[in-house]
Amino acid sequence: MSETVVATRTFTEKLEAARDASITLAACNAALKNAALEAIALAVVDNADRIIPANQLDLANGRENGLSVGLQDRLRLDEKRLASLAEAVRLVATLVDPVGESVRGKTLPNGLQLSQVRVPFGVIGVIYEARPNVTIDIAALALKSGNAAVLRGGSAAENTNRVLVDLIQGALASVGLPRDAVQTVDEFGRDGARQLMQARGLVDVLIPRGSADLINTVVNESKVPVIETGAGVVHVFLDESADESWAVDIVQNSKVQRPSVCNALETLLVHEGSAARLLPAVLGELRASGVTIHADERTRAIFADAVPATEDDWSTEYMSLDLSVRVVDGLDQAIEHIRRYSTHHTESIITNDLGNAERFLAEVDSAVVMVNASTRFTDGGEFGFGAEVGISTQKLHARGPMGLSELTSTKWIVRGSGQVRP
Amino acid sequence: MSETVVATRTFTEKLEAARDASITLAACNAALKNAALEAIALAVVDNADRIIPANQLDLANGRENGLSVGLQDRLRLDEKRLASLAEAVRLVATLVDPVGESVRGKTLPNGLQLSQVRVPFGVIGVIYEARPNVTIDIAALALKSGNAAVLRGGSAAENTNRVLVDLIQGALASVGLPRDAVQTVDEFGRDGARQLMQARGLVDVLIPRGSADLINTVVNESKVPVIETGAGVVHVFLDESADESWAVDIVQNSKVQRPSVCNALETLLVHEGSAARLLPAVLGELRASGVTIHADERTRAIFADAVPATEDDWSTEYMSLDLSVRVVDGLDQAIEHIRRYSTHHTESIITNDLGNAERFLAEVDSAVVMVNASTRFTDGGEFGFGAEVGISTQKLHARGPMGLSELTSTKWIVRGSGQVRP
């Protein structure tokens, strides 16, 4: 099936080839990168007859190995999904190239001209699970930002990813770019992930995408710098002055619109002064949408149709139609609760009190803090980045939704005319 | 001697106290932080009679344990050095507070107002060796950027650092800030460093300062994100068209002005077309300053007063009056040499050829790339940052000289009026 003609290479040989390819990509203008993206989009749509059978094989293996229904759904590619993947690649082609952007600049008193410009990282490693769409997405984002990508996509999607990477490599070659700019290391199995984490000096940054377990493993074991795209134990706090219709709409949207994603609401905190006023409507609407309420005692005194919350519930990212609910004494206790249980992804306060809004924004230490808005807005697309690499919950390098510019580093350029330091 | 009244605390208790203090600092305005800096500066100068005897004790122990003369010099504090440390702290007080600075912002079509603002990291861990000046420097920089600092300064400076941290804590308390905002964990010995590297979730970023060995250990073992301040195998390339006086002055300045620092020149590459014209003057001047030339054959054919270069020399950071010199075929070979041996700190081309200058700037992948300037300019002070945390040779988060803003993260603030995602 495969058109690959390259003899079997060692892991290090593959990474060195990625490094060489990254040097070509770094010097590549946007027009050529966009031509490669267009070729990838075309290849994805035109080769459904190669992709879908490989995907069917992965799905059959998955069913045999007891892959959950949710993961099976993530794994599945059909013509419609392939078309929307191609559309996403074409969208990346329309984005501004971040490489070469001047971040800061000045002329020093001695005449030296300084400028800090964006440059690609070089080689990006990505470790993910059972999501063939990530293969296309991340290849497109890496390419546009001038980076080579080395992918470990996991055994569950191995056949699909092999075909996708082969198509991407063919598209790269068709415009004269090196095939090695996008590679999979799936043939090394679990050892591929382990070796990627050890490859300091050959891989510039490692991005894990997937379960909390996967991310924790990479964060703890990697010697390569990691960008952590973390879990979301996301909170909304209904303050004493919260508008009822905003409270109902924002909680409903945050929890129910797409419960399986990281920006979905997991814990609702309610000021004791507004609990009786707001909870019946807010929780009633959620129950009507099939949400199971895990509530503390004070909540259940107001809204009986709930199960008792356990200590574990406060730190659980359900990713399902479940919600933890707690009545708090006020803003201080809400902030304290968030400090203790949040994963510092997104938190929103619903309030009409300016002082409380500003305190919440200042004192809650999360990647995204909101006033009177749905937590579902924490998203690269919604933020206008045009694409999303993931949502960083770490503080180093990138925090919150990451777009193309978060896939770049910078370098300082100094232009002189013989200056020496006195 | 010590005024500390706190009962002995566990490592985790100390880090939790640092976390609590960091919350206070994050909300602290610049005026109060500057008052604390002034109190620290005063305390350093006024307490020479406590600091110097402790330092003498460390020096005596150092001599007994065979500490090198160079490290003994770094360890030594006298009244003059204390005065200049205090001056450096006062300089930090004059710098603009990075916290709260708006990095990006926009209003989305649905009316949501987004802004990305600088926030402190939280708790910064610093692991360093035998340099009590770092204790004061990093405390001042951390404080100004709203971060708590947990310091592991090493056994060689333990007595000095204990007094310095006690004075800093007293200064913090005198203006009403928490003493725990600056702490040493030296009492835990080597285990303190090990535990800092494991303290993911309690320490937000770890900065190693010191030898390549120390930095490599931290980079490889830390589970906490690290900012790597790396070694400098720094190159100058004399192109065919290099001006002779610029070549002589820039090489001399880059190598001789302060050979023990990371931005000092270590390897000189010379275009074969200019070697006969430039090397006699360039290397003659260096020899007159006592520099030992480690040269390849083509160099020694032109300039005999040199020892043969070994393969190891090309990757050696001498930090002394030694220089590796190689004649190359041209720009391509120069770039190839740099790609192979450089630590990606700073490289400079001396040329009058515009195309070659631009190629060098674009293709050399180092933190700082220069044309016609001394490599000694890679420095936070020279770049106008007012202070320097170190020079990052990694690509994540910060690259090149780091000032106060590199000690911050960001968060996104979203202000809405009931928006939900369609």
From TrEMBL, chains A, B:
EC number of the protein: 1.2.1.41
InterPro entries for this protein: Ald_DH/histidinol_DH (IPR016161), Ald_DH_C (IPR016163), Ald_DH_N (IPR016162), Aldehyde_DH_dom (IPR015590), G-glutamylP_reductase_CS (IPR020593), Glu-5-SA_DH (IPR012134), GPR_dom (IPR000965)
GO terms of biological process kind: L-proline biosynthetic process
PROSITE patterns (alphabetical): PROA (PS01223)
Name of protein: Gamma-glutamyl phosphate reductase
Gene Ontology CC: cytoplasm
EC class of the enzyme, as a word: oxidoreductase
Subcellular location: Cytoplasm
Gene3D superfamilies: Aldehyde Dehydrogenase, Chain A, domain 1 (3.40.605.10), Aldehyde Dehydrogenase, Chain A, domain 2 (3.40.309.10)
HAMAP family documented for this protein: ProA
Originating organism: Lacisediminihabitans profunda
